[in-house]
Amino acid sequence: MILERDERGVSIAVTHVLTVGITAILISGLLIAGSSLLETEQERSTESALETIGERLASEIAAVDQTTEPSDTVRVNTSHPRTVSGSGYRVALADGSTCTGYPLVDTEPCVILEADGEDVTVAVPLAVDSGVDTSVEVRGGTIEITRRASGDLTLEDYP
């Protein structure tokens, strides 16, 4: 008696292995695409929040510049969020070519905001007649806007 080779059960096992493998590849592809989408949305959210804070701060600095005499020494405390999208941020005043390197900023000086946890930097135009101190960088939160007797505007961390 000669027995023939029976391969009927093999096709079920091969089909099952292929189905599980293809499903695993598709699910991992969806997870990778979803995580990159979330990362992009977080960067957009951070950029939008920094722009909003920068516009508020720029208007507060302009108000200090317009309502005081150049020889006055004035300090104004402004309150802003300490964090943006779960990370801190830094604020600095800039002028010259530093400001013109950003999109939609063709004036000088400007306010530059930079997030700590992400690679997001935003510049907001600043409409002031006085000079600005570009050597100071402050943390987000309560910021002190100072107009010195020399006429320069500067930012300081609120103690």
Provide an overview of this structure:
The protein is an alpha+beta fold and about 160 residues long. The chain has one domain (about 10-155). Helices cover about 40% and strands about 25% of the residues. It is built from 2 helices and 8 strands. The strands form 2 sheets. Strands 2, 3, 4, 5 and 6 form a 5-stranded antiparallel beta sheet that branches. It has a 3-stranded antiparallel beta sheet with strand order 1-7-8, covered by helices on one side. The longest helix is centred in the first third of the chain and has 60 residues, at about 10-65. About 20% of the residues are buried. It holds the Pfam family DUF7266.
Summarize the helices and strands and which ones pair or pack.
Blueprint lengths: L7 H60 L6 E6 L3 E2 L2 E8 L2 H4 L9 E6 L5 E5 L11 E3 L2 E6 L5 E5 L2
Antiparallel strand pairs: 1-7, 2-3, 3-4, 3-6, 4-5, 7-8
Keywords: Membrane, Transmembrane, Transmembrane helix
InterPro entries: DUF7266
Organism: Halovivax cerinus
